[in-house]
Fold this protein.
Amino acid sequence: IPGFAQSKVKGHAGQLVAGRCGKTNVLAMQGRVHLYEGYPLSQVVLPARTLIKAGCEVLVITNAAGGINTALEPGDLVLINDHINFTCQNPLVGDNDDRLGPRFPDMSVAYDLELRELAFAEARDAGISLREGIYNWMLGPSYETPAEIRLARRAGADLAGMSTVPEVIAARHMGARVLGISCVTNKAAGLQETLSHDEVKETAERVKSTFIKLLTRVVLAMGEGLA
């Protein structure tokens, strides 16, 4: 797609899929690009902005994350109820395009409460365990140090990851509703001996069917007008 950056991370197919899930029209990105790949934030958030301009009213954003909260285990699914930006970078820096959104968008409720309640209800009905927590955006690509994780825990974070926050900021800037779900693929640094991308992919593959089941139910419920 012209203007879209190509992901170079294993596990990110870099494709755009269009279709329907029940009564709901869906545009889905199979993978994404990250700031740590060297792309400017304007390119990192371009896919999210494009989906919204194409008519998407809700952005459902998923990620693999490290568990900072010691109660979280690899394989857990966690609804994001808020985030912390440890990178101190923001895709809205620079001149504001008033056609997209306001200069100073409100981020008080970045992750839609009604959609979170809907996701909890669908998870409960399906017998899927679903937690809730705060996501902490780290730049990467190196994994965090134990000291950084201790700092994030003291700041209130439950999850650590290298994505999601810039797209959420861009989506809220444009007025789209956001639902965020993390898959805990490993315990964060200092809570297990070593960290590896292979472990992340292995855990994600193990949880894939449950994750798909939950997302399908949520999207179908949206199509029935429950959100």
User: Anything to note?
Assistant: Residues 134 and 171 are 18 Å apart (CA to CA). The beta strands are 15-21, 24-30, 58-67, 77-85, 130-137, 159-161, 177-187.
